[in-house]
Specification:
Elements: E1 3-12, E2 15-25, E3 30-35, H1 41-48, E4 56-64, E5 67-68, H2 74-80, E6 85-88, H3 92-95, H4 102-114, H5 118-131, H6 137-140, H7 150-162, E7 168-172, H8 180-196, E8 200-205, H9 208-214, E9 217-222, E10 225-231, H10 232-237, H11 242-264
Parallel strand pairs: 3-8, 3-9, 6-7, 7-8
Antiparallel strand pairs: 1-2, 1-4, 4-5, 9-10
Helix pairs in contact: 4-5, 4-7, 7-8
Length: 265
Amino acid sequence: MSLEVHGLTIEIGGERVVDGVSFEVPDGGTVGLIGESGSGKSLTALAIVGLLPQGAQASGSIRWRGQEVLGLHERAFAELRGDEIGIVFQDPLTALNPVRTVGRQIAESVRIHERLRGRGLRERAIAEAARVALPEPEAIIKRYPHQLSGGQRQRVAIAMALACRPRLLIADEPTTALDATVQAGILDLLRGLTADEDMSLLFITHDLAVLAQVATHAVVLERGRVVEAGAVPRLLSAPRAAVTQGLLRDATATLWRGQASGGDA
């Protein structure tokens, strides 16, 4: 088992915002963490990679390939991040450094974890840009984030997360700010990369229709608690929890609007 989360509880300012969350992501598996805004899904992801906000207190257990990681020293977490676990955030424009070229940012984890330098590092940045289907990778690595489109910036963020070939990718709402066409391209990219490299994926979203395109199993959160879990086809056909039923109605309405819009065009 790649990732095992058991009884994860997170408190901020005396308020319990994640309450006893448990789930597992198997080797090569694709699992979704879904819920409405404020359900605790992003905080759960941040706890896994040791990036909880200052003042947050976590308890329970997070095991990565059998090793307990909750409570690790920051240096140990830094070695884990990027090397074994990669994370992609929702808004790449804020996640990327505006004053550094995207090539330098793609290559940063390689420089740190693999000690690569000089021409070899530049060639690696080009290769990683090409791997996520960025156009003209030799030219694009010289650009800055503001010179790229939203979809291109998200591909840069994915390249950064995957440069050191981690065994688990956590994708936290990676398509929310993108239009439907660009969103589809990013989802195709994630499906292809995880399948080709037998990498595990924890995909976080509030959109059940998006989740259905990338994950086989899902865990539904509401107010910091797991209210339902199971295979995605079952959640789509027979949701049990009220919040899952609401997410399904939202997904159905979104799909209907998209089809109506396409028909009018």
